[in-house]
Hints:
Strand content: under 5%
Shape: rod-shaped
Radius of gyration: 22 Å
Number of helices: 2
Mean pLDDT: 92
Largest sheet: none
Distance between the termini: 25 Å
Low-confidence stretches: none
Helix content: over 70%
Amino acid sequence: MWIGVKIPIPQKKDAKKWVELEQQVESEYKEQEVTSKKILVQKKHQLEKEIMKLEALPENPGRASLIKRLKSELGHING
Length: 79
C-alpha cells in the first residue's frame, strides 16, 4: 500500500510511533473504502434512474441499444 511521501516514517526503535502509523494508515484505508462504496452506490442509482427514464420513452433502435449498454454497465457494478 502506498502511504505517500508526506507521512513521516518513525525510527525503527520507536514502537509507539509505529503503532500510531499503523492505526493512521488503517483508518485512512477504511475511509477510502467507504468513500469508494458510496461512489459506487451513487453510480448504480444514477444508472437505474437513467434506465427507468429511457424505458418510459417510446421505442426506437437508439434507445434500445442505450438501455442495453446501461444495463450491462449496471450488471458489472452489481457483480
